[in-house]
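re: that chain from earlier
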Amino acid sequence: MNFFTQPACYGVIDCNNFFVSCERLFRPDLLQKPVMVLSSNDGCVVARSNEVRALGVKMGQPVFELKDLIRLHQITIFSANFSLYQNLSARVLQLIKAVCPQTEPYSIDEAFVELSTIPKIEREPLMQQLRLQIYQATQIPVSIGLAPTKTLAKLANELVKSVDRRESAIALNWPVIPQAGVLNLSQTSDLSFYLQTTPIEKIWGIGGRTAPKLTRLGINTAQDFIKTPLNQIQQLLKTPGSQIWHELNGIPKLTLSHHGPETQSLMVSRSFGQPITDFHNLQVAVGNFAEAIALKLRRQAQQTSSLTVSIFWKTRPGERYKPNTSANITLDQPSQLTSVIMTAAMTALKQAWLPDFPAIKAGINAFNLSPVSRQAQALFLDDQTHAQLEHQAKTWIQVDQLNQKFGQVIIKTGRCLTGKNHSTWQSKHQHRSPDYLTAWSDLAPVRCVT
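^ sequence. v structure.
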């Protein structure tokens, strides 16, 4: 394969140990010390510093299994603080878009960029400069992989993250050495070196269910995959497999998706910190979920026409499975308004409520999503009702803007007021860091030394 004639160039910019890096931003005393971040309800590990990885801690490992290790190595623990992570993610993305207008946000800590219009000689220095700018502005370290296709760029990114230092790559006899956290596979004709040493399950798009199918056929590495005839890959993995095969051969089949695929459904759910037996407290919980669903819809410029509220109840002695109930509500017309979705959610909750069971988890699913731009007005919607809906839509836009500026808890609906027993439904987060960027009361203190 000769990639010198390939006009396309894609990049993957991935924040290193993102949740941990966010926590360290306000705790510089934790640099180079073991840190882990826990999931909802502080149940398992969702992020690890390199120091914790070195201790053998696995992603998803239950925290109760690690009590002795945490105490022995003085590991600092944080409960997940998603408002902090989302805020810093937005800042990193803004910096990326300022340098790379052709950007596709892929996840909270990762984005694709296209650099095809930038001269080859300038691509790597530009990415090194961007990496430095991101760190100077946010203290978030990133790794960047460049290649002729998105799949190869993902591989390049994984490779650059797999070595801590330039000397490590030299020791491994890599044909191309990462420079300042950037690995450019577009500049090498010896890509087979990396493909031979990459297990097939490490390739983007090859999931845990697909990899065993391939290994049974003797396809153990990425190099084995591209040497397999295309028709055999197509028979086994259909169109996605064909795309991966072409991409690993340096032929772009996946372009940037600037808006991402249209989501067909949305879900917000949470396990409670302790079982709920009071209907009012359950209303508060589901009300907060309804607010979150509506906000997601507005951010994605979508609307829903169907909602399902599900309640999971505590298992009684002798019962094998956790019982659950659900109720579905179909809206008169698609909506993204919090008030409309809240009313539907409360109606569904009353239908799903079992007064004699303690609730341990609840969730809302929004189905039949459609873009707001394609909204069809109800046939018999009178002018007054239409005007009211337009007024509500403008109101919620203003509410979103205020909450974005001052913090997510500045303005809430009355249904979501927690009262005295708010802790009964909220997840456990005993180690949660302050909301440094979204709450005035949590602003980090500055100490001046004269």
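The first strand starts at residue 10 and ends at 15.
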